């Protein structure tokens, strides 16, 4: 519920936009990737990770920020 009220706590978009303006990195993409939590089977989680990673490679994304709740 707290993330619904303040989404920047989970995805720090406000801080990232400031860093982008300061030139700390090239460009922030306009989406984020997420998966389900601890209830996910290991095999499924591995497939999700592979698919997300492949998309990042195809789009030329060369950096990510990992957050946890």
Fold and architecture overview:
The protein has helices at residues 2-5, 13-22, 42-58. Helices cover 45% and strands 0% of the residues. The protein is an all-alpha fold and 69 residues long. The chain is built from 3 helices and no strands. The model has no long low-confidence stretch (mean pLDDT 88).
Strand content: under 5%
Describe the global form.
flat
Helix content: 40-55%
Mean pLDDT: 88
Order of helices and strands: HHH
The major beta sheet can be summarized as: none
Instruction: Give the radius of gyration.
Output: 14 Å
How many helical stretches?
3
Terminal CA distance:
11 Å
Total strands: 0
SS-derived structural category: mainly alpha
Q: Spans with pLDDT under 50 lasting ≥5 residues? A: none
Kindly summarize this structure in a few lines:
The protein is mostly helical and 69 residues long. It has helices at 2-5, 13-22, 42-58.
Question: Descriptors for this entry?
Answer:
69 residues; mainly alpha; flat
Question: Topology, pairings included?
Answer:
Blueprint: H1 2-5, H2 13-22, H3 42-58
